[in-house]
Amino acid sequence: MTAHRVVVWSTGGVGSIAIDAIRRRPDLELVGVWVHSPDKVGRDAGELAGIEPLGVAATNDADALIALAPDAVVYAASGPDRDGGAVPDYLRLLKAGINVVSTSSTALVHPPSYFAPDWRDQLEAAKQGQVSLYASGIEPGFAADYLPLVLSTQSSSIEKIHAFEIGLYDDYGVPDIMSDALGFGRPLDFDPMMKQPGFIEMAWKAPIYLIASGLGVEVEAVRGFFDRELTDRDIEVA
């Protein structure tokens, strides 16, 4: 059996899990790892993922990884402006004939409702060379969209679908998301990205449209609300 050659893009929470999962799969071979931080360059991928050494050194040289001609890239880079940095990478990889699986652009779980039509069209054009782009995640990407659709098959009639994301963020090691996007550790007069008009709708409308499409109904409107409360105790976050 010939193993599929895989590159993992970023070694954060998702990337580290992917590295360990690839290690356990006889049908997959880890051939490269991309990192953003200069202090991670040259370090063993296994070490960065918290497992035993794997003999694969991390690099920040995207061209070198593309030159490896992997079958697929697991793209797991994170940050507030995920799509702004990720979409150009997707285009480079797809045009090089490399399949991409990404958890970084969850709005692409339903491409027709993607907030940037120009990017979406460019990505569609780049996939003409028998390659694929699969956007996924836990939420969006499974728990609040695909799973409700599967569960809906057990119902003879549906009046409402409620999907809640309740996050335990004490070990979520992405400071940009925690501070700039969500506002943890900032005063209440600081406006995080979540408070910007349209941001919540942009980030979470894809599951709504995906469910609506699966059920054959139309979405009339998507409305976002953002509330905060000041805690009465210290909370340690990433």
From TrEMBL:
Keywords attached to this entry: NADP, Oxidoreductase
Domain Dihydrodipicolinate reductase N-terminal: 9-73
Entry keyword annotation includes NADP: yes
Pfam families: DapB_N
Superkingdom of source: Bacteria
An example molecular function term from Gene Ontology annotations: oxidoreductase activity
Name of the protein this chain belongs to: Dihydrodipicolinate reductase
Higher taxonomy: Bacteria, Bacillati, Actinomycetota, Actinomycetes, Mycobacteriales
